[in-house]
Amino acid sequence: MEFITSLEGLREHYGQVHDKAVRKELRALDHHARSFIARSPFVLIGSSDKAGNADVTPKGDRPGFVAVLDDTTLAIPDRPGNNRLDTWQNVIVNPAVGLLFLIPGMNETLRVNGQGRITADQSLRDRLAVDGRSPVTVMIVEVKATYMHCAKAFMRSGLWKPETWPDRASMPTLGEILRDQLALSESADDVDRSLDDAYAKTLW
């Protein structure tokens, strides 16, 4: 198998980029981007460490959980989790991040590229609290570029069409997966019950 190893070689396989695809990239959040973020309950965060090892993590909460502080600044709260901190640790050593905001049922997405920093500022954490529970920390993202992404990926995948979804019962539970991968002595049912208990008590 031969690999493409140059930008010139890559471009030979594609046509030139469309003018509108270039011009749609903005340097600040306009009212459309603000409106999208206010309605989004889910964002994917791409990051990488100092060595270039990549990571993508999902963040989900009530719509609008990512706060727009101004035209070039976002605040992403970090709720209780497993304390791996993959993305947060990456940002400490390499602040470049890529965000992909989704709205259920909408095939278009919003992309934001920028620089992240982590803060434990109490006033901001209090502002982003849910049911009286503040996030552990907050990622501040300085927006460098933002633009709408077209619908083709979601149209091809049929992601929002229930008739295309697999039967959940045909797939293993997380408890089954963790039992097998970690060679746990507990039963899959016990692991699932433990997970359900953690979800109920530490969602926020």
From TrEMBL:
Gene3D superfamilies: Electron Transport, Fmn-binding Protein, Chain A. Residues 29-149 form the Pyridoxamine 5'-phosphate oxidase N-terminal domain. InterPro entries: Pyridox_Oxase_FMN-dep, Pyridox_Oxase_N, Split_barrel_FMN-bd. This is Pyridoxamine 5'-phosphate oxidase family protein.
